[in-house]
């Protein structure tokens, strides 16, 4: 009842009159209630809530602006421009490096995202010489020191037959990153040596892999086992297969993918 009384007192309807602390109703109660209900819900919003809403809107706009600023929306077009530039140049180091320096001359920050995208495009097009030039230029600038860049560069060295340069980069990776070298890079280097029939080198990389505790994938296990076999070390081949080869593998039979037990003696 107290709440109802305060509600009536707060109502500004002219059909209500207050006299000596009493409320006098000059019209039917139903019409007064309806008009007072409308009047009650037309009260202005508290100032503090309005201020909070304005602050929230401003904060949202600011966060959106920062997100757009940090996201490099034009990196795709920059990457395409870079590919077009390097594809039209002779392979001389001075010509390529000069063009790349001009490409970044007006940038406030190194366009790393665009450069990484350009490397992916060049990789899809099998332009290994261009990849080598761009990657070396990035590394000389102290940029792109990532496992992805190293993997692309090692692949380019492999496809272009530049094993000595690949070994130089690989030794730098091992000495710089030591125990943070990824499984993918170990596999890449073992694959490179396998392509160029360097069995002893495969065993060396595999030894480094075991030393830092990186478990090889199935393809690497197969390459290492074949290397031991070609070197006439059958006992070590058996040890590698027993330790790392999966007991099961998947194959297709009558149009279906089925799991079969692995033969440890498969070469």
UniProtKB/TrEMBL annotation:
InterPro entries linked: EMB1417-like, PPR_rpt, TPR-like_helical_dom_sf
Keywords tagged on the record: Repeat
First and last residues of every PPR repeat: 182-216
Residue intervals passing through the bilayer: none
PANTHER family: OS01G0757700 PROTEIN (PTHR46782), OS07G0545900 PROTEIN (PTHR46782:SF2)
Protein name in the entry: Pentatricopeptide repeat-containing protein
Source organism (scientific name): Protea cynaroides
